[in-house]
Amino acid sequence: MKGLAAGGSGRLILITGRPSVGKTTLIRKVADSLSGRRLGGFYTEEMRVAGERHGFRLVTFDGRERVMARVGIRGPHRVGKYGVDVSAIDQLAESALELRGETEIYLVDEIGKMECFALKFVSAMRALLDSQKLIIATIAQKGGGFIEEVRRRRDALILEVTRENRDQLPEQVLAWLESAKRA
What we know:
Elements: E1 12-16, H1 23-33, E2 39-49, E3 52-60, E4 65-70, E5 78-79, E6 82-84, H2 86-96, E7 105-111, H3 113-116, H4 119-129, E8 134-139, H5 145-151, E9 156-160, H6 169-182
Parallel strand pairs: 1-8, 1-9, 2-7, 7-8
Antiparallel strand pairs: 2-3, 3-4, 4-6, 5-6
Helix pairs in contact: 1-6, 2-4
């Protein structure tokens, strides 16, 4: 998408796209470019063994991390072959998404099925979305419930990451962010 502008898009960008297209990489590049700024939120990273994905780790921008899903976790919350540790998501997401006056920007990776099993995550995200804070979040392409609720927000600018645009998007998102801060 060319020439992102804050006008009409409010203070919320939702990044979507196919699995493994580069959504998390985009969030991490934006975070790296904002080094020294007060960031809230988290990103997820794949856990691999011998090149095969075995789970996901949630990492906050203040350096805490927990395994949020992996093969072998038993319980009622599952996405594909992964068992989801809802308490791990709730524990870190609740504090990482807490509204703080000093936090300038919230980066959230991702609003997806695994995260939405965690009620404290959903509650913290709702409060954040209803605040005046700047938010850049990745979101699942499909999903009902909270995912659909967020995708329908009128104040959200939704960008789709593709293999063709993924290298240009971080710079465009940063330009939007600077414009939104001045608005």
